[in-house]
Design a protein that fits this description.
Length: 223
């Protein structure tokens, strides 16, 4: 079955461009469009998309609040949200990730990255662009704790190796890069990541990365 995608952006030309790219793929179907967050909520209820490609800055209701309502308790369907950002302008991306977004994508990303991101998110994984994640979190470090706060009790449930893995996830490393850094297999890394998510009650790698910063385990700007 094709991945059902809802396009949410207040710029019609951008929506048209995204539609042309996605409809060229045999496994993706654009089922609708919305120009703001309120329209997006109505379309999600009516169309039951698998993935919502969500802009941040929109009239009436922004992408953060729309994401919160789409992915929050009592949601009407299984839609995943992939946030669109211009990076230099959107200071609310971290808030969108906290609200339940499954990842983010730059608006000027190549077409193949957009398509791959849709597939990754539809498959239940988080879309973390390793080269961008660290820059994004560091850029918005003022929104995050300084690292002097007490470590949450839940962090103590992790083994030393799981803490290592969590730190590397937070710094934007892929499974392959983590495996190379720790001299283990990618399968072992996936197992560790799974244990981290389960023990901390987190949905995906995005939430794990934000948790690591919020808990003070990783400090913005640290190597």
């Amino acid at each position: 079955m094709a991945i059902r995608v809802l396009l949410v952006d207040d710029q019609p030309l951008l929506r048209t461009g995204f539609r042309m790219i996605l409809e060229a793929e045999v496994d993706i179907a654009v089922v609708g469009e919305a120009g703001d967050g309120l329209q997006a909520l109505d379309q999600v209820r009516a169309l039951q998309p698998d993935v919502v490609l969500m802009d941040i800055r929109m009239p009436r209701m922004d992408g953060v609040e729309a994401t919160r309502q789409i992915t929050g308790p009592g949601r009407d369907g299984p839609a995943k949200v992939l946030v669109l950002t211009t990076f230099d302008l959107d200071e609310y991306v971290v808030e969108a990730l906290r609200a339940g977004a499954s990842g983010f994508l730059l608006k000027d990303a190549p077409a193949n990255e957009l398509v791959q991101a849709i597939r990754v998110v539809a498959g239940g994984e988080a879309m973390l662009a390793p080269s961008i994640t660290r820059r994004l979190l560091d850029k918005y470090a003022t929104h995050l704790p300084s690292g002097d706060e007490p470590v949450p009790n839940t962090l103590h449930t992790l083994t030393d190796r799981e803490v290592e893995v969590l730190k590397l996830v937070a710094r934007g490393l892929s499974n392959a890069e983590i495996a190379a850094d720790l001299f283990v297999s990618e399968t072992t890394v996936k197992t560790h990541v799974g244990h981290v998510l389960t023990k901390l009650g987190l949905r995906d790698r995005v939430q794990a990365a934000v948790y690591a910063y919020e808990s003070g385990l990783v400090r913005p700007g640290a190597q």
